[in-house]
Amino acid sequence: MRLGLGTGSTARHVLDVIAERRARGELRDIVGVATSSATEEQARSLQIPISTLDDVVELDLGIDGADEVDPALDLIKGLGGALLWEKIVAAACARFVVVADESKLVPRLGSKSPLPVEVVAFGWTTQLKALTELGARATLRTKPDGSAFWTDGGHHIIDCAFPNGIADARELGATLKARTGVVETGLFLGMTSSVIVATENGVRVLERKS
């Protein structure tokens, strides 16, 4: 099986479980494609075979976390800083499965989490006015030392908080992607096959309606 391996706290747990099962003699014939340098580093440390999309064009299954999940199983992702690579890998997967706890379930995207927007570093300040005009409180993502955060792809991220959530995620996504200098957004729309939700009463599996 060819696996897309996500990024973030949930994905780190998934890698640990994959490694445990491989140590028991299970899941022998798998290869992973990582969505970030951090995921690749962890996978290699756990002796999980790693390849790239240049060599493995189509993936059987992608497993990742999410920052928000709405009733249609659309997502906001990218607080971990890997949204572009995550979306490229998710698009290459026959099935894309999200693992999350119930706090990530929201009635409307943008209710709790800001929307990450990955932008070209050159002239990034020109994006702020446009994002503000769309109703967002737009701030450049920074590292703990105050310097600008850089993605693995060499870009910046502007986090966009919408006080009342995102009214029309598809319209917003199209508007943002049409803007010069915007590389990608954290809106994962129509990509999720199912969401495995951890709750206080056990696990629920939410399937996308056809």
Question: What's the short story on this structure?
Answer:
With 210 residues, this protein is α/β, with parallel strands linked by helices. It has helices at 9-23, 37-45, 83-91, 126-133, 169-177; strands at 2-5, 31-34, 50-51, 59-64, 68-69, 75-76, 93-101, 115-119, 137-140, 156-161, 182-185, 187-188, 194-199, 202-207. The chain contains five helices and 14 strands.
Strand content: 25-35%
Number of helices: 5
Largest sheet composition = 7 strands, mixed
H and E string: EHEHEEEEHEEHEEHEEEE
Q: State the separation between the terminal residues, measured CA to CA.
A: 25 Å
What is the CATH architecture annotation of the largest domain?
Answer: 3-Layer(aba) Sandwich
Rg for CA atoms: 17 Å
Average pLDDT score: 96
Write down the domain tally.
2
**Secondary-structure-derived class:** alpha/beta
The CATH top-level class label of the largest domain: Alpha Beta
Q: Give the % helix.
A: 10-25%
* Low-confidence regions: none
Annotated CATH topology of the largest domain = Rossmann fold
Q: What strand line-up does the widest sheet have? A: 3-2-1-4-7-13-14
Tertiary shape: globular
Strand segment count = 14
